[in-house]
Design a protein that fits this description.
about 120 residues, alpha+beta, Trna Endonuclease, Chain: A, domain 1, five-stranded mixed β-sheet, about 30% helix
Amino acid sequence: MAAKDILGRAGEARAARHLEERGYTILDRNWRCTQGELDIVAIDHGVLAIVEVKTRRSEAYGHPFEAVDARKRRRLWGLAHAWLEAHPDLPRVRAVRLEAIGIVGDPESGALEHLKDLS
């Protein structure tokens, strides 16, 4: 596995722990379909949270949230709909929300930022 993939997986693991500590229930991690991949799918008080995780060693190439632009958000919405279609037995959710977690530095101890609503 490439170093960037190891960094990304470690960041996703920390992000999942961060969400669980805040009361989220993780439903899926690294869910894939023909359209792409969702990093984390979770429930937060009846809201389906689609969470994109970006981990960077530094901000030399920009802040992690810069990678979650309008094009990426449109793709995440499409993936959210595909995930819902693939999980018809999911209890009814009140809403769907896009979120992002950015980690800069060491994935275990670096700065973590959580944006709860990307719409």
